[in-house]
Design brief:
The protein has one domain: Orthogonal Bundle (Phenylalanine Hydroxylase). Helices cover 53% and strands 9% of the residues. The chain has 14 helices and six strands. Strands 4-3-6-5 form a four-stranded mixed beta sheet. Strands 1-2 form a two-stranded parallel sheet. Strand 3 and strand 4 form a beta hairpin. The chain is globular, with a radius of gyration of 19 Å. The model has no long low-confidence stretch (mean pLDDT 94).
């Protein structure tokens, strides 16, 4: 409890790991400071009543199944012991950004790249980077559900299909153009489902997206407010809808069930194979060079 601190953007351990080229890392639990644990406690304490009101029942079951500690940052090894018999997933510590294909391929192998730092105690409401509260308290409870975790694995399989398509495209410029569009479409799909998804749960509107479930302010807003749009999930809208990360979302999509969500992943892959995702609308998110290279690795390796 008296470690040097693992505060987001202020952790020497993370800086050293990045400089050493270590993407996947162990969780140095002894480095968490008192302030780090206090940040977790305050985040957990204030959001728990909103989970009980707005979260999908599978998320609430997941919180209980993981036995999340409300006052101290969880150990990933403990989380993984609970996850193993439920879905086979595991939380895998990372030093920071993970290129898109590597991220999705980890999902295919039932591994979730997990940030180990936590936001500053004096800035609990928003940060652009993921932290352990977002990843563990927002994402991981849903990973206890086999049906939902199978959706994540399926997304990883779709990413592999995309990489194989890139490898089969002979013209370099065309390969890059198509792959950039597919990555953009995948990022939008993930954003409007896994991160910011809404769902019908026993005839009520509930939340399953981790970006919402780790946001105290936005979690209530998306269910109660009349100041933004909620629409039934439409794949053609989702893959062509840009998003921005630094404010409340103006448009979100509702799935009927996790079976429905799984079927939309299947449909996404079919559209990709048919060439329907070779061109999607411009705008956010931008595709950076690391993400593009991660998908083109099969083509680049010959």
């Amino acid at each position: 409890m008296n470690g040097g601190g693992l505060t987001t953007t202020k952790a020497p351990f993370i800086e050293n790991a990045i400089q050493a080229g270590k993407r996947f890392i162990d969780q140095p639990y002894e480095l968490y400071s008192v302030d780090n644990h206090n940040a977790w406690r305050q985040l957990y304490e204030r959001i728990k009543p909103r989970w009980e009101r707005y979260a999908h029942h599978k998320f609430l079951e997941g919180v209980n199944n993981l036995a999340l500690d409300p006052i101290a940052i969880p150990r990933l090894e403990d989380i993984n012991q609970f996850l193993a018999p439920l879905s086979g997933f595991k939380a895998k510590g990372v030093s920071g950004y993970v290129p898109a294909y590597i991220f999705f391929d980890a999902l295919r192998q039932r591994e979730f790249p997990t940030t180990i730092t936590i936001r500053d105690l004096n800035n609990l409401d928003y940060l652009p980077e993921p932290d352990i509260f977002h990843d563990v308290a927002g994402h991981v409870p849903m990973h206890t559900d086999r049906q939902f975790s199978d959706v994540l694995v399926r997304l990883g399989e779709v990413a592999r299909t995309a990489a194989n398509l890139a490898a089969e495209t002979k013209d370099t410029a065309e390969r890059v153009r198509r792959t950039e569009n597919i990555i953009k479409a995948m990022a939008r799909f993930f954003w409007f489902t896994i991160e910011f998804g809404l769902i019908r749960d026993k005839d009520k509107l509930k939340v399953y997206g981790s970006g919402l479930l780790s946001s105290f302010g936005e979690l209530a807003h998306v269910v109660e407010s009349s100041e933004f749009h909620r629409h039934p999930f439409q794949l053609e809208w989702v893959v062509n809808q840009y998003f921005e990360i630094d404010h409340f979302q103006p448009l979100l999509f509702i799935v009927d069930s996790f079976d429905h969500l799984y079927s939309e992943v299947d449909r996404f892959e079919q559209w990709m194979l048919e060439g329907r995702l070779n061109v999607v609308s411009p705008g956010e998110p931008l595709v950076n060079e690391e993400d593009l290279k991660s998908f083109l690795h099969l083509a680049d390796s010959g």
